Amino acid sequence: MANAANEVTDKSNSDNELIYTYNRELFYHFDKEKGFTQKVEYQNPNNQVIIKQSWDAAEQRLDEVKQKVIIGKSSPVAYYMEKILMEVPMLAAYMEISSWRVKRHLKSRVFKKLKPETLQKYAGIFGITVEELVKPEFMR
Amino acid sequence: METTKTLINYTHRQAGHCESGATSNLFKHNGLELSEPMAFGIGNGLYFSYIPFLKIQFAPMISFRNLPNTVFKRSAAYLGIDATVVKKIKEPKEAMEMLDRNLEMGIPTGCQVGVFQLTFFPPEYRMHYNMHNLVVFGKEGNMYHVSDTVMEHPQLITYDDLLRVRYAKGAFAPQGKMYWINHAIDKPIDLKPAIILGIKKTVNEMIGIPFPLVGVKGLRWMARDLKKWPKKHGNDKTSFYLGQILRMAEDFGTGGAGFRYIYGAFLKEAGELFDHHQELLEASDMMGKTANKWREFTYIGARNCKNRSKPEEDYGTLSEKLLEIAAGEEKVYQKLKKIKF
Questions:
Q1: Cβ–Cβ of B247/A94 closer than 8 Å?
Q2: Same domain, A79 and A134
Q3: Residue in chain B nearest A11 by alpha carbon
Q4: Predicted confidence (pLDDT) per residue in B83-97, tens digit
Q5: Within this chain, do residues A95 and A38 fall inside the same structural domain, yes or no?
Q6: Residue A49 maps to a domain
Q7: B149-169 burial, b for 16+ CB within 10 Å, e for fewer?
Q8: Do the Cβ atoms of B243 and A57 come within 8 Å?
Q9: Total domains in the fold of chain B
Q10: Distance from C-alpha of B124 to C-alpha of B146, rounded to nearest angstrom
């Protein structure tokens, strides 16, 4: 293992817990004496912290959107879009309509007037039923 | 439906990077012993660009890799190997039929996929990232056998799931892209000319392009921006941006340190092939050291992300570390540029 990497693991021993242990990957290392080596191991704890941070950030964004939906500022489409980590252009691509239309659908005023077919299509993309789309769980 | 079974005798090997791994495995299957670092080096896996005005997943767009399929296409072209790349297939069903036909003919086929809905993929990586590669090498009824170099073992995936990931939407959508090698490689192939071409191209892409956001220049630009972020965006957002840089650098295809290790290993192999070429071996050593510096950078950065409220290490330090890395890398490329083969 590389010198620097060794130091790294030593220093962070106190909080060296692995968060994700689903799969081991192949990593390369460099050491002045041994040269380049390969090793199959779990992603190192430091990187796992970074991954976790971005999931936490996603959760936080979802919470914010949820509040907006509850007070009626945004439509449930906004909530479910955030839930599957999508952004407007991507959702528009899946919906096969233009971005500005999706953006409109994020307003609850416009959402209430949507046709059943459009709702069905949204529900299909989000992997839920139309009822769940119109009235999300947290609003029941 | 009757169950048909076609299973190609394909060896699954794990690799550090999805595309160079798939490329190397495909070449090996067809009779050319091409290691992963070799494929990565010849096919110009190393790259950097920073596009601050484009936001992807709420953070500036940073890319540590070339456009999808560059590694396979260029290594095949530079080595003079007969390979096919189908860039875009409009009809998803047609794309799957094409895949089936290939499998019946005994051709393992590489596919570009999005990872968000990739059923067997580690859950923590399942973001909307469309530049992942895997090789399909068998079909059994409704199930496909795939070799994904991230995973320890070969995996199974259903027809519907494979179709879905091959037609994921968003930035760099795969659009059913697939690639394969047409014939078994029976004549011996000289790697040397391809290595020279590959090194020249990478050197040019990293220091030769007169545009400030690409290559080493892009790295410097990002380092300078990093220092400004806390004032401009506040601590929370800066920490998130930094996290995105680190995630791009370490997790998605192991861009930062990982790529430098692979490239260093490539230079070492190349150096040995050119009768222990001193300068190439020195460059390989330098690359290894830069890679270790990248790892330190991620380490400091990760600690910074952890204590969001009170950053232990100042962003200025990180920025300086990044500038140091940029300087180190530039030296390697300049050294490579001067080598006469």
A1: no
A2: yes
A3: B299
A4: 999 999 999 999 999
A5: no
A6: no
A7: bbbeebbebeeebbbbbbbbb
A8: yes
A9: 2
A10: 20
Helix (H) or strand (E) holding B24: helix B18-29
pLDDT, average across residues B146-160: 94
**Residue A21: its chain B contacts at CB < 8 A?**
none
Looking at residue B252, its pLDDT comes to 60
Position A96 in a domain: yes
Residues of chain A with pLDDT under 70: 1-16
Q: Over chain B, what is the mean pLDDT?
A: 90
pLDDT digits (tens, 9 = 90+) for A6-20: 444 444 444 567 888
* Inter-CA distances, A82 with A57, A88, A103, B295, B326, Å: 11, 10, 13, 32, 36
Residues B124 and B155 in one domain: yes
Please tell me if residue A49 touches chain B, with a CB cutoff of 8 Å: yes
- Which residues in chain A are closer than 8 Å to B234, comparing Cβ atoms? none
pLDDT at residue A13, as a whole number: 41
Asked if A116 has any chain B CB less than 8 Å from its own CB, the reply is: no
- What stretch of H or E contains B49? strand B46-56
Strand partners, B145: B138, B156
Shortest distance between the Cα of B284 and any Cα of chain A, in A, equals: 9
CA distance A90 to A88: 5
How far does B308 lie from chain A, in Å, by closest CA? 10
Give the range of the structural domain holding residue A23, as residue numbers without chain letter: 3-43
Q: Is A37 on the interface with B (CB under 8 A)?
A: no
